[in-house]
Specification:
single chain, alpha+beta, Ubiquitin-like (UB roll), Serine Threonine Protein Phosphatase 5, Tetratricopeptide repeat, 5-stranded mixed beta sheet, 43% helix, elongated, disordered C terminus, ANK repeat, repeat, Dendritic_Spine_Reg/Scaffold
């Protein structure tokens, strides 16, 4: 049996020798099961000598436990830990945490080592920092971004998975009102989007909009990320949810000419004749004015109305003509919509 005592002699734990292989394993056991500080702040002594983390524990003994507080560090040291995390230097991060250095110290921008590791996909470093008690939901001072947001916008799936398993919140918003899901959708990281949608959380976030009223589906559709849009629709995202200007996902895809996304939305039953609050434009009007022939053909073929007028009294045909898109104008002028553009 391993008898763990304070320097005062009071026993705080008794652990069977066969339950732990070495000092590091014992420290982890003391942290997880006996609620002591993380292993980086523990020192174990036997016969007045400190035990190295890799010292094997294969016989019964009395061990003294010393708990350390974090050392005072300069801004240079804070940046050094962040830099090591960014580069994925496991040995350097381990050494600095063993000082012990507080993993939650941030630089002048409020960015921590955990954010740095998440941004660059440094999974091994991330595991160390989480073990050391790094704050999972701390946000920086620049964009209000958390570690999960950094992982999501950069597409680091395993990092995001580890953060979620560690309890990171996915419903936090940055200064723009964007969640990790919005960021992942905007950047087209389908695997991250699926992970976030499947993560067990009270708030699923599929229709949580940013401060402009834009949802993850709108972000994906505007940027042409068809796979992401498909995941969101399959998860039940609102296909006709509109932002503050009454712009829908179909408006967003149509104005950018993303024909695959438009096809996906039309197939899902998205409203084709909804008008925005800015100019009173429909998706067909936007596609026509921008010269996106394939989108125009798809919308008309699916039954989009050509006779709707915007706030200036213009139809899709008039907008196409005014913009010089004569082939689209000729197509729209044909009552059957069968002409080839």
């Amino acid at each position: 049996m391993l008898h763990i005592r304070k320097l005062s002699g009071d026993e705080v734990a008794s652990i069977p020798v066969e339950d732990v292989s070495d000092v590091r394993a014992l420290k982890r056991r003391l942290h997880v099961q006996h609620c002591f500080v993380p292993r980086f702040q523990q020192r174990l002594l036997h016969d007045c000598s400190f035990l190295d983390d890799f010292t094997s524990l294969d016989a019964a003994m009395d061990i003294e436990l010393v708990l350390l507080t974090y050392c005072d560090v300069s801004e240079v040291c804070v940046n050094e830990l962040k830099s090591a995390a960014l580069k994925g230097s496991v040995a350097k991060v381990e050494a600095m945490l063993q000082l012990p250095q507080d993993p939650n110290k941030a630089d002048l921008q409020g960015r921590t080592a955990l954010m740095a590791a998440s941004r660059n996909g440094r999974l091994a470093v991330l595991q160390l920092l989480l073990e050391a008690g790094a704050g999972k939901d701390t946000a920086d001072n620049v964009n209000g971004a958390t570690a999960l947001m950094y992982a999501s916008l950069k597409g680091h799936v395993e990092v995001a998975r580890l953060l979620l398993e560690a309890g990171a919140r996915k419903d936090i918003v940055d200064i723009h009102g964007s969640t990790a899901l919005v960021l992942a959708a905007r950047h087209g990281h389908a695997a991250i989007v699926r992970l976030l949608l499947e993560a067990g959380d009270v708030v699923d976030g599929k229709d949580v909009a940013n401060r402009h009223g834009r949802t993850p589906l709108m972000a994906a559709c505007f940027h042409g990320h068809v796979e992401v849009a498909r995941f969101l629709l399959e998860a039940g995202a609102g296909k006709d949810v509109a932002d503050k200007l009454a712009v829908t996902a179909l408006h967003a895809a149509s104005i950018k000419g993303h024909v695959e996304v438009v096809h996906l939305l039309v197939k899902a039953g998205a409203g084709m004749n909804m008008t925005d609050n800015h100019k009173g434009a429909t998706p067909l009007m936007l596609a026509s004015s921008k010269g996106h022939a394939a989108v125009v053909r798809l919308l008309v073929g699916a039954g989009a109305r050509k006779d709707i007028v915007d706030k200036n009294g213009s139809t899709a045909l008039m907008l196409a003509s005014a913009a010089g898109h004569l082939e689209i104008a000729r197509f729209l002028e044909d009552g059957t919509g069968r002409n080839t553009i």
